[in-house]
Amino acid sequence: MRFLLSPEQRQFAATLHELLGGADTAAAARAWAAGEHDRGLKLWHALADVGVFALLVDEDHGGLGAGPVDLVVACEALGYHAVPGPLVESAAVAPALLTGHRLTSLAEGDLVATVVAPPEVPLALDADIAGVVLDLTGAHLAGAGAGAGPVRSIDPPRRLFRVPAAAGRSGGTAFDRGVLAVAAQLLGAAQWLLDTSVAYAGQRRQYGRAIGEYQAIKHLLADVVTRLELARPLLYGAAVAGETFARDVSAAKVMAGDAALLAARTALQVHGAIGYTAEHDLGLRLTKVRALAGAWGTGSFHRARVLR
């Protein structure tokens, strides 16, 4: 058995990195946080054109009929580039809940979907711009984005809204795909933090030497590499887990969350004071990692789930 991505999956990842690398996603995220969605929605349609929202949609509805591994490949890239919007909800969760023409519109990028699943997902991400708001039963919810403004998030581009909904079910295919997609985003963000920290350590000089030459910095970065190398097999293993999908996606979420939080702390240590500035793109990942670590179930929730 080959535990490697296929040539097509590697090419898909390369296509996404090329697209997003030239799209100034940081500017799109900052505009999204301010409630200006034009730049982000343009990026949304570009992602639809390469098939991100069609991955888990069946071919009868214009989708690609792909699987969880392809979803992980996409979400890693989306996390790496800090793309804003309800990506997990639209690409991973909604395909399991929608039917008919709405499913086709989702695959084409014309329909933005968001999801609420209390108690683990109590708030709907970007409900003010979503064409449909769902709960895990598949019910279409009313009142999204109406009345009061968004609930403040530690990650400003994550615009959260209170939506009346019955208690969801912390399980099932839709929920577990959401968990898997968030874990992949966390791993992608962690990889960006590592790559950026390594590059900065090679450029920043103190006492006549690049700081990356000092053993203390090397050890910090090596610890992040180790955590990522341990988390990645769990993430992709969860994507092919079959009958143990629920247990394995929870394990992957815990490991990816821990690795990303370590990468965030290390990146801030390596960058020093510049890492605290709003102008530096590091801040976008620091806040996103903190928010995603608790999204679609906290570490405590998923550890308990694995134990059960």
What would you note in describing this structure?
- A hairpin with a 2-residue loop joins strand 5 and strand 6 (209-210).
- It contains 11 helices and 6 strands.
- It has helices at residues 7-21, 25-33, 38-49, 68-80, 87-93, 100-108, 172-203, 215-239, 245-271, 282-294, 299-307, and strands spanning 113-116, 124-125, 132-135, 160-161, 205-206, 209-210.
- The chain is mainly alpha-helical and 308 residues long.
- The protein is globular, with a radius of gyration of 19 Å.
- The protein has a two-stranded parallel ribbon with strand order 1-3.
Throw out a few tags for this protein.
single chain, 308 residues, mainly alpha, two-stranded parallel sheet, two-stranded antiparallel sheet, 56% helix, 5% strand
What is the distance, rounded to the nearest whole angstrom, between the alpha carbons of the first and last residues? 29 Å
Tally of alpha and pi helices: 11
Helical proportion?
55-70%
Beta strands, count: 6
Spatial sequence of strands, sheet with the most strands = 1-3
Class based on secondary structure composition and strand pairing = mainly alpha
Q: Regions with pLDDT < 50 over 5+ consecutive residues?
A: none
Mean pLDDT value = 91
Percent in strands: 5-15%
Shape: globular
Radius of gyration: 19 Å
Main pleated-sheet profile: 2 strands, parallel
Q: Order of SSEs, N→C?
A: HHHHHHEEEEHEEHHHH
